[in-house]
Amino acid sequence: MDHLPSVAEVASLSADPARALMLIGLVDGRALPAGELAYSAGVTPQTASSHLAKLVDGGLLAVEREGRRRYYRLAGAHVAQALEQLAAIRPAEPARRKPVIANARELSFARCCYDHLAGRLGVAVTDALKRREFLVAGVNKTFDVTPAGADWFGHIGVDMGALRPTRRGLARQCLDWTERTHHLAGPLGAAFLNRLCEAGWLRRSRRSRLIDVTPKGQLGLKHSSTSRRAPTRFSGSAGPTLGRSHNSNSRYCSMSSVGPLSSPAARSGQGKSKP
Q1: pTM
Q2: 239 occurs within a structural domain
Q3: Residues 215, 228, 226, 156: is their CA dihedral positive or negative?
Q4: C-alpha distances in angstroms, 204 versus 227, 237, 239, 261?
Q5: Is 89 exposed, middle or buried (0-12, 13-18, 19+ CB in 10 A)?
Q6: Comparing C-alpha atoms, which of 100, 86, 74 is closest to residue 209?
Q7: Is the domain of 258 the same as that of 162?
Q8: Angle at 11 between CA 46 and CA 44, to 5 degrees
Q9: How many of the other CB atoms lie within 10 Å of CB of 107?
Q10: DSSP3 helix / strand / coil % (the chain, rounded to 5)
C-alpha cells in the first residue's frame, strides 16, 4: 500500500488542466523554457513558474539551466509512457464528441511519442514488422527481435550492437492512445525513428510532436508495400522495404493498412507544419 500516496500525488499534479497541457507539450522529449510552456498552457509566466516547480518537486519534470534560462523536460521515458497510457483511458461509450480539429487529425496520423514513432503510421509500421516476423510479442509488453529482424534493422543502418536494453528490454510495446493498439518503443524504437529521419523519409516538427512524411518517404513507404526485392540501404533510391527480406523464402508483407501516406495537412494543403 506504500505506493498509494505516490499515485495520489502524481494524479493530483497531472489533474490540473494547465499542468496537464505543459506535460503533454513535453511528451516529444524536447526541453522548453518556462515562457513557451506558459503560452501553450494559456497561463501567465508567474502561474507557470508555480506549476513547473510543483512538477519538478513531484518528479515529473527535470530542469536544466543554460545561462540565465531554465529549460524543462520530462523526467524520463517512464513519465511519457504514463501520460500516453492515461490519454488512452476514456469512457466505453462517450457522450457527444466535438469535431476533430486539424491538429488532432495530424497527431493521430504520425507523431513523436517521447522518442519513437506513434500514430496510425507508427502502428502500421509495427504491424508490418510483426507480420514479417521481424518482431514477435514477448513477455511484460516487450517485443523480441528475431534474427531476421536484427538482420533487417542492421541492413537499413540501425547499429544493433550499439543499442543497450533498458530494464524493460530493447524493444517495448507502447499503447498508442489514438489507435488503441501497440507501436514499437524502447531503444530500438528510438533508433528506428532516428534512422527514418536521418534518411529523409520522416521530418520532425520543431514546434510540436507532429511528424511529416516527406515526398521521399511517401515513395519509400509505398515501395515497401509493393516491392518483393530485398531491402536496400537508405543511401539507395528505394530505401528499406518491409517486403521481401534477405530470406528468399520469406513472405511478402503489405503496409497498405496505413492508408494515404501523406499527413492530413499535406493532403489538404492547409496547416502544414514547418520543418
Answers
A1: 0.58
A2: yes
A3: negative
A4: 26, 21, 19, 15
A5: exposed
A6: 74
A7: yes
A8: 15
A9: 22
A10: 45, 15, 40
Set of cell numbers at residue 165:
536494453
Residue 71's domain comprises 4-75
CA distances from residue 61 to 13, 51, 167 in whole angstroms, order as listed? 11, 11, 21
User: What proportion of the chain, given as a percentage, has pLDDT over 70?
Assistant: 72
CA angle 209, 104, 185 (to 5 degrees): 45
Say yes or no: 60 and 116 in one domain.
Answer: no
Element (H, E) at 236: none
Which three cell numbers mark 113? 511519442
Max avg pLDDT among 167-171, 191-195, 221-225: 191-195
The residue among 59, 141, 152, 74 whose CA lies nearest residue 113 is 74
Q: Kindly report, residue by residue over 72-120, the tens digit of the pLDDT.
A: 989 888 888 888 778 777 665 554 554 545 566 777 888 888 889 999 9
Residue appearing with cell numbers 508483407: 253
